[in-house]
Write a structure and sequence with these properties.
seven-stranded mixed beta sheet, Aspartate Aminotransferase, domain 1, 15 strands, binds pyridoxal-5'-phosphate, alpha/beta, Aspartate Aminotransferase, domain 2, 2 domains
Length: 442
């Protein structure tokens, strides 16, 4: 790995979702990566406990993906997909479709999770309009949902800090389900909590309040990642599905985090046995090697929109210059081949019990008030410091990085989602480092 000089001007880059002044005063810089490890600019290896940002499921800089991108860059750098096509776009779509739940085999490419969410919301509205129910414009999200940062995503999302500066400009017809986080009933649950399926019944109340004829779609993360690993109660997603079907409402699963093996199956939909009408994807779709996202639509949704008008008319006025970018598509094909070849989804399922045990072993560590997990995702919630919510987890995150392990934190919750190639001793290293760090955190 070649080492470049560390830059000394950090001022120009306006960093996303970052306390810029705090970071620039004490930066953490990464200059390389391989397999399970990042390489910091000070030469240290950092064990990646969160697959970058829940996205590098096959591990870093995998030779097959690197080669596919390099070759593609030299063969076809860019080609439009508006009224044109290139073979890799179709091949990548077929490969994604092949691992989706039955029926969700029409793939619309985007460049990020946020774009996938806004695309899915627009498809839902266009679908109802094509069926002659254009009055169905209301969208239902959920408290503590994270659906990216587009105006659609922050409107259906349920995180106040993400929307409060823009609150005058949110989508007008949106309502929210209650979140499912109930530590008073479910603290230290391994896997899915038994308590809470009835929270899905709130959808009936919301539907009755607005009348079903006004509602286009319900969007939820099957397992909420970004707001601190909220595992759905047993039976909850099934109920949402039943209520949506009963009222002709589309169900959208935001699988930007859960897609591509995180729970030990290709999708959370497959894991839970609940099939949505639309699914948003991104991140691990191509191991995060080139920006890419997608919406997997049920073929009935596609057919309804595509068959609605004249054969020579554009059916959906939506798309991105870089939809199915050749390099992103090449990376996706190589990644999906890698997942299949190395059986990484099955590997995730086989490592999950070890991961669960290692996470829950921290239940008696200082400050810990909850541990929760599913598949290769875990969350450890800490007691907040008086008057300083988030400060304790931030300190733990920094100290873990200094001790050679990358974890993620959100408010006072530490989140873990390592690459699926992780070995047992690396699972141990992550959680033993966290324990040691918590023993030093105020
Ligand atoms: C569930 C979910 N949806 C959407 C997004 C947004 O994805 P992106 O940051 O690629 O726009 C994320 C990102 O973490 C996510 O977790």
């Amino acid at each position: 790995m070649t080492s470049r000089p560390v830059i000394d001007d950090l001022s120009s880059f306006w960093m996303p979702f970052t306390a810029n002044r705090q970071f620039k005063a004490a930066p953490r810089l990464i200059e390389g990566a391989k397999g399970m490890y990042y390489r910091a600019t000070d030469g240290r290896d950092i064990l990646d406990g969160c697959a970058g940002l829940w996205c590098v499921n096959a591990g870093h800089c995998r030779d097959e993906i690197v080669a596919a991108i390099q070759q593609q860059a030299a063969t076809l750098d860019f080609a439009p997909t508006f009224q044109m096509g290139h073979p890799l776009a179709f091949e990548a779509a077929s490969k994604v479709a092949a691992i989706m739940p039955d029926g969700l085999d029409r793939i619309f490419f985007t460049n990020s999770g946020s774009e996938s969410v806004d695309t899915a919301l627009k498809i839902a509205l266009a679908y109802h309009r094509a069926r002659g129910e254009g009055q169905r414009t209301r969208l239902i999200g959920r408290e503590r949902g994270y659906h990216g940062v587009g105006f659609g995503g922050i409107s259906v999302g349920g995180i106040a800090p993400n929307s409060k500066a823009f609150s005058g400009a949110l989508l007008p017809s949106v309502d929210h389900l209650p979140h499912t986080h109930a530590p008073e009933h479910n603290a230290f649950t391994k896997g899915q909590p038994a308590w809470g399926a009835h929270l899905a019944d709130e959808l009936e109340r919301i539907v009755a309040l607005h009348d079903p004829s006004t509602i286009a779609a319900v969007i939820v993360e099957p397992l909420a990642g970004s707001t601190g690993v909220l595992v759905p109660p047993e039976g909850y997603l099934q109920k949402l599905r039943e209520i949506c079907t009963k009222h002709g409402i589309l169900l959208i699963f935001d699988e930007v985090i859960t897609g591509f093996g995180r729970l030990g199956k290709a999708t959370a939909a497959e894991y839970f046995g609940v099939t949505p009408d639309l699914m948003t994807l991104a991140k691990a779709i191509n191991n995060a090697a080139i920006p890419m996202g997608a919406v997997a639509a049920h073929r009935n949704v596609y057919d309804t929109i595509v068959n609605a008008g004249a054969v020579n008319g554009i059916e959906l006025f939506h798309g991105y210059t870089y939809s199915a970018h050749p390099m992103a598509a090449a990376a996706a094909i190589a990644t999906l081949d890698l997942y299949a070849g190395e059986q990484l989804f099955e590997r995730a399922a086989s490592k999950a019990p070890k991961f669960e045990a290692a996470a829950h072993a921290l239940r008696d560590a200082p400050h810990v008030k909850d541990v929760r997990n599913l598949g290769m995702v875990a969350g450890i919630e800490l007691e907040s410091r008086d008057g300083a919510p988030g400060a304790r987890a931030y300190e733990a995150f920094v100290k873990c990085f200094e001790a050679g392990v990358l974890v993620r934190y959100t408010s006072d919750i530490l989140a873990f989602s390592p690459p699926l190639i992780i070995e047992d001793d690396q699972i141990e290293q992550i959680f033993s480092t966290v324990r040691k760090v918590l023993e030093t955190v105020k």
